[in-house]
Write a structure and sequence with these properties.
single chain, about 290 residues, alpha/beta, Rossmann fold, two-stranded antiparallel sheet, 9 strands, globular, binds adenosine-5'-diphosphate, binds magnesium ion
Length: about 290
């Protein structure tokens, strides 16, 4: 057995698609790489593969512009669509275990991006989390995935489906190695105006936090630059470099501040970064 400390596992999860899991994951990955940590990532969203596509864009951009953009060692899981459920799960478990066991002992951080729907791979990922980050948009549809009020919205707060899945993952994690999952709910795509809805979603998320067992952190505002950076394979940690091809604006400066604030709020373990390990090409499904 390895004497080395296993990687700190950060999972981005929310049963709702489009809430910002992949966008936040890309930024946390590049932020940690910039800070000198060694980072591996795995894409458990076998349908959308946004994180994988982002990294492909990043490698193309680096080649095209001759940039040196740091990227994580990455595994894009394939999943299994054929056969009986038990067989599919066996195969997916084997694929997952093979990808992450190697990464777990060779990197400081392992980042898992998960799909916006319940799946076996998604549950496996959650049960490995040291830190779970759940972005939610400013609507009661998003809040409803986490908690809801009984009695036509006026009664006591109850855990919704996703929170029950997280509770199960927490139990599994405790049974497996006594570990605890630090769950952080982050608001994403906040509008700049103080709309009523925004205030109400904020106060309900706060009210549910101790009951459901998460803490909250300030997230990202609604900014078109998050959408524009994806096809270029860049994040806000890259755009200030010379030759990035992006002319930074005040919006980039404010957004980078938001991203840094989020990474601080995650309270990830810091300490001496390990040297970057040699990348095993078999485990890195993105061309170098
Ligand atoms: N803060 C934001 N401001 C503007 N657009 C955003 C923001 N966060 C995410 N998006 C956009 O919303 C869409 C969904 O985000 P994504 O990260 O893919 O969500 P998920 O991974 O949860 O499905 C993408 O087009 C993304 O660029
Ligand atoms: Mg995604």
């Amino acid at each position: 057995m390895s004497e080395r400390k296993p990687a700190h596992v950060v999972v981005f999860g929310n049963e709702k698609g489009g809430s910002g899991k992949s966008t936040l994951a890309m930024h946390v990955i590049t932020g940690l790489l910039r800070a000198g940590y060694s980072v591996a990532s795995a894409d458990l969203d076998i349908r959308q593969r946004s994180l994988t596509r982002f990294l492909e864009n990043r490698h193309q951009q680096a080649r095209r512009r001759g940039l040196s953009l740091r990227s994580p060692a990455h595994a894009a899981l394939q999943g299994c669509a054929e056969g009986r459920q038990t067989l599919r799960e066996e195969r997916e478990f084997a694929e997952f275990a093979e990808a992450v066991s190697w990464m777990e002992y060779n990197y400081d951080f392992l980042i898992l991006d998960t799909p916006g729907s319940d799946s076996y791979l998604c549950r496996l990922g959650h049960a490995m989390a040291d830190t779970l980050v759940t972005p939610v948009n400013d609507s009661f549809i998003d809040f409803d995935v986490i908690a809801r009020r009984a009695g036509q919205g006026r009664g006591r707060l109850e855990a919704s489906q996703y929170s029950r899945m997280v509770a199960k993952a927490r139990r599994k994690r405790r049974e497996a190695d006594g570990g605890e999952i630090d769950w952080i709910v982050v608001r994403n795509r906040l509008s700049s105006i103080q709309a009523n809805n925004k205030l109400r979603v904020g106060s309900e998320l706060q009210a549910a936090s101790s009951h459901i067992g998460y803490r909250t952190a300030e997230g990202f505002g609604e900014r078109v630059i998050y959408r524009e950076l994806f096809p270029r394979g860049l994040t806000l940690f890259d755009v200030f470099d010379r030759d990035s091809g992006v002319r930074p604006t005040m919006s980039h400066v404010s957004a980078r501040h938001e991203v840094r604030r989020l990474i601080d709020a995650l309270r990830l373990p810091t300490g001496k970064a390990r040297r970057l390990p040699a990348i095993d090409p078999l485990k890195t499904s993105i061309p170098a």
